[in-house]
Amino acid sequence: MDLQNTAAIVTGGASGLGAATAQALAGQGAAVFAFDLQPSMEKARAVDGVTYVAVDVTDVEGVRLAVATAVAAGRPLRTVVNCAGIGTAGRVLNKDGSATDPALFARTVSINLVGSYNVLALAAEQIAKTGPLGDGARGIVINTASVAAFEGQIGQEAYAASKGGIVGLNLPAARDLAQYGIRVNTIAPGIVETPMLAGVTEEFQKTLAAGVPFPRRLARPEEYARLAVFLIEHDYINGEVIRMDGALRMAPR
């Protein structure tokens, strides 16, 4: 699918994976609508072809209005890339034997999984109304999982469960939306240089990179963006979860 003269939505589009993807899609000729929280918007670097829309992906009505903003701009909405998410850590039981607040688990799943579904569903509703392209194609949704969906580490119960849900959502959503010509794929990154690592020391980042078989470094947001563009352009890849991890397999801790 050609991105030229189409509209695209990128959630989490003000930083990290989302910002790199928004820039890449705009570079391919799409009018990009970057959804993110207001505080993130205030720090975002302006990019030509990218319109920043303040929205909380867990707010269904807010998402509906934000999608309507993208549609009202006039270009057919063809692409959604869900990058919005949070990384959380908390063992089931703390060292003192007390349970970690279940609200942490609920919040993580709400943002990472339910938020992605909200955007997928409400954007697909609008993509389905566009005119068909070759083979009846209308558009694509790309969700973001993580290698934690497969090898969640100790203390990653909430995060791994939320990303495992994204993986579980992928194939049935692709099958469900096939009748409308909408493909669904998922990228599962390994350890990427994003703001989620902002609080991690450089020394520890080198330790993380040393665990990657090859290339022995952390992934870059731009590499995620390139993979997203490839999936958009390759019309026969559908229902797939693609790991982008340098052959990394996470240890228990």
Automatic annotation (TrEMBL):
The keyword DNA damage does not apply. Gene3D superfamilies: NAD(P)-binding Rossmann-like Domain. Keywords: Oxidoreductase. The keyword Oxidoreductase applies. It comes from the Bacteria. Residues 6-177 form the Ketoreductase domain. One of its GO terms (molecular function) is oxidoreductase activity. Belongs to the short-chain dehydrogenases/reductases (SDR) family. This is 3-hydroxy-2-methylbutyryl-CoA dehydrogenase. It comes from Streptomyces humidus.
